[in-house]
Structure prediction request, 250 residues.
Amino acid sequence: MTEVQITVLVGLLPVIIAFSFIIFVVYRSKRESEFKRKETELKLDKAEGELIALKAQINPHFIFNSLNSIHHFILNQETSQASNFLIKFSKLIRYVLESSSKKWVSLEEEIESNRTYLELEQLRRKNDFSFFINWKDSQKLDSIFIPPMLIQPFLENAIWHGINENGEIKLEIAKTNKSHLEIQISDNGDGTSSKSSSDLSKFVKKSSMGLHLMEGRFAQLNTLPGVEASFTINKNNGTHVNLVIPFEEE
Prediction:
């Protein structure tokens, strides 16, 4: 090897080392990026799986309370009321079971299912309360999609633990930004509703779920990218619940 060749080789050596280092950095960066992507996918799969599991736990809680109402009608030999209740109940239970396997449902479906639920409770309580539902936007309800069964447990809590005779429940929904809705549920009760003598929970062991399950669902929603879900409860001249939940547009 001549002196010129040695000089050229020595001159190229730093270039070769630098090029090799760049290749190494790029390879390592891609490898770390792929690892993080897979790790994120696993976390999302886990979060979505836990959300489905929590929704599945809400279903028997809701079904038990509905059967409680049917039990009340049977004890009081109110066959016409029981028949009317069962028709509405079958419609609602179909929605509940179908929505359990979905990540998103239309806001129109969710509002209609909650309207049916409130009508069922009106039947059970002999129309001793009224309710009001308001969508504060001009956009069509069937073009907005939200996670299912986030509203009903709070309405249930207002009926079973909040309002008394001649009570009133308000459900108001509005957009806060391009990705989240604000849902306000308020009642004028004093939180002293008592169980009737025909309440099934006096005879059947029933675990307390309701709001505890909702805490779990909201915690899991917040593990998803871009989601800032929350709920707060304020008891002052009735109970006022404020929900912030994500939505998607069609």
Notes: Confidence is low (pLDDT under 50) at residues 200-208. DSSP finds five helices and eight strands in the chain.
